[in-house]
From TrEMBL:
This is Succinate dehydrogenase. It is found in: Membrane. It comes from Nocardia jinanensis. The chain crosses the membrane at residues 33-59, 114-136. Its main location: membrane. One of its GO terms (molecular function) is metal ion binding.
Length: 143
C-alpha cells in the first residue's frame, strides 16, 4: 500500500477550519490590531497596576492610611485622575477584547455571537462611563 500524495486533492482527508481561522475577510486587519492592542495594553497595565499597588499598599503606612480623605486628596490632582482613568479604560478594553475573543472562539451561531458581543459592548460602555463620571465629578465635600 502506498502513502497518499499530498499534492492531489482527492487524496487528502477532509479538513476542518482551524479554531482561530477568520470566518470572513470583512474584518481586514482588525484582528491584527486587536492582538497588538492586547500586548501593549497588557504592558501598560503592568506599570499602572504595580504603581497603583505600590502607592496604595506599601508606601507611607500602607493600607491603614486608605480612607475617604486619602481618595479625596488623590483625586484632587489631575495626574492621579488620569492615572486611574487610564487604568480603568485599559483594563476594560483589554478584558473586553479578551472576552470578545472567547465569544468568537466558542459561539457557534452568528446570532449568539452578535448578542453576546452586544451585551459585552454595552456593559463595557456602562462601566467606563460610570467610572469616568465618578473620577471626574468626585466631590470631597460631602454635606
Amino acid at each position: 500500500m502506498s502513502a497518499p500524495v499530498l499534492g492531489k486533492s482527492h487524496d487528502r482527508p477532509a479538513s476542518l477550519d482551524l479554531p482561530r481561522s477568520p470566518r470572513s475577510h470583512a474584518s481586514g486587519n482588525f484582528e491584527k490590531y486587536a492582538w497588538l492592542f492586547m500586548r501593549f495594553s497588557g504592558l501598560a497595565l503592568i506599570v499602572l497596576v504595580f504603581g497603583h499597588m505600590t502607592i496604595m499598599l506599601l508606601l507611607d503606612g500602607g493600607v491603614k492610611r486608605l480612607n475617604f480623605a486619602f481618595v479625596a486628596g488623590r483625586w484632587s490632582s489631575p495626574f492621579w485622575q488620569i492615572w486611574d482613568l487610564a487604568m480603568l479604560w485599559l483594563a476594560q478594553l483589554h478584558g473586553g477584547n479578551g472576552v470578545r475573543t472567547v465569544i468568537a472562539d466558542y459561539s457557534r451561531k452568528d446570532s449568539t455571537r452578535f448578542w453576546l458581543n452586544t451585551l459585552l459592548v454595552l456593559s463595557m460602555i456602562l462601566i467606563m462611563g460610570v467610572g469616568t463620571y465618578v473620577i471626574f465629578t468626585f466631590d470631597p465635600n460631602i454635606s
